[in-house]
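Dear Dr. V.,

Thank you for agreeing to look over these. As mentioned in my earlier message, I'm a first-year student in the group and I'm still getting used to reading structure tokens, so any feedback on how I've presented them would be very welcome. I ran two proteins. I've put each sequence directly above its structure. The first is here:
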Amino acid sequence: MSATTADTLIPETVAVRVPARSWRSEYRAIKIVWRRELIRFANDRMRIVTSLVQPLLFLFVLGSGLQTLSAASSHGVDLKTFIYPGILCISVMFTAMFSAASIVWDREFGFLREMMVAPIRRSSIVVGKCLGGATVASFQGVIVLALAGLVHVPYDPLLILGVFGLQLLLAYTVTAFGVMIAIRIKQMQSFMGVMQMIVMPMFFLSGALYPVSGLPQWLAVLNRIDPLTYAVDPMRRLVFNHLDISAAARRTLDPGVTWFGWHLPSLLEAAMVLVLGLIMMAIAIAEFSATE
């Protein structure tokens, strides 16, 4: 075989250029992951509808069913109005958890590995996931927020902006928590089981369905260590500040969260939710960076 023929059989080597990392490439990666979460949410209308079922059952079925029993102690406040802030939180919470679950789906279908070999920091993937989940869950919360008039809550612009801001904070923290858990789990069935074990106790302990004063000691302790408590309480305070109710009703239904007799300000509670979210996202980044 002549030298000329041998040269023609050797495949030509194609040079591959890997772009250097920069803050722009990381920002672009975060934006792509964030946008992907939004596209998946917008294309999954069944998920939007099914995520509303449980909050609406709590709000209208449980709220209407127990209204007669609670009428003697609610000082004229409709039970649906009282539990509405808690329902706003749970609607955000469920959606944020499902958004975090996408990281398990991506691992099962191999898409996560493709993202991990991309020339970007793994922290960018986690940040994009957290921001995407927070945005999607906040959109879901807006749907429940639109029902405020049905439970005698006014459509005050300041109230809506304040509630939306708290929903956004909660959605971010819950998504970061879910991503932190999802990174360690290989199968979706395991993830859903863990989430059910965590989400429902957090909801029932948060005071979403009852005032947080006068609780048994063991329940008061669990209520104070539940992160969701510090999202429900300022949201309820914000809603009650825009209602025309008696002072007795406010003292009974909105006593506020206390630490050894000290009432926590709403801003401090919101800051605690944000700090928890940042801590959990940092843990998720550390875990994801160590994953092979």
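The second protein is here, in the same arrangement:
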Amino acid sequence: MTVARPSRMAGIGPMLIVALIAAALYWPLMLAANVGPAGRTLASGAELDCTTALACASQLRNPVVPAPAQLAQGFVRLSTPVTSPLALPYNVGVTAGETLLGLLLATVTGIGLALLLVASRAFERATLPWLVASQTVPVVAIAPMLAVLLGQYGVQGFLPKAIIAAYIAFFPVAVGMSRGLRSADPLHLDLMRTYHASSAQTYRLLRFPASLPHLFTALKVAVTSALVGSIVAEISTISFSGLGKMLAENSRASDTVALWVIMGYGAVLGVTLVALVNALERWVTPWSRR
């Protein structure tokens, strides 16, 4: 008996339902969040084009949650001209580049560590606790120190952010890949020993193919971690471009509408990067779609 696989449209339907529910709840939540600040603004005697707190909730200059029209105006203001270094599309490209380079470094490092973890139990017992401990250090604290350390060796600009992103992202890759390498069927491993296959042949023909689903699952976690690392690195170090730099600037200016627009761009970038990993997975492992 064959089991029909769900189509892609079947997965889009629930997403649209959630989006519609979120859109329906946005306006009342926006009013609830802004009515208090609006009331305090009116009580302070500020001149507003409204007379009640409820009416002013959608007209505050720096609202807690911006009204849809304010979001649209902020989107246009921060997105044009598109090619400007001060516009969001350019800065999204910078952060995306740092994230992808960080993910590449994390993938190479994580796969190398996974090979060592699988090859030697002693290496695993000696290093795994330290690898776990490395992920407990807040990136906000370690990013400036890494930037200073790398700066002493002439590593400045784009690369330090990518290295900080890789620092956060390598751990899920290492853990996922090592689990995948160990997931090969024991019967198949016995068969490879029966054929006197070398260790390299066992890895190439059995362990690596078996590890691919685990690797891509880890990469989907790692790419979002790398994005967060890139943005935090831009905030914590001297940056002249990127989403983190724009977040820091607009946070200091208390421009909440801009902060919401930048967060929206960051969310879209994260979804796009995960979609790229999904597309790569479908290309590398076409059998997984069966």
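From my reading of the second output: The chain has a mean pLDDT of 88. DSSP finds eleven helices and no strands in the chain. Does that match how you would interpret it?

Kind regards,
E.
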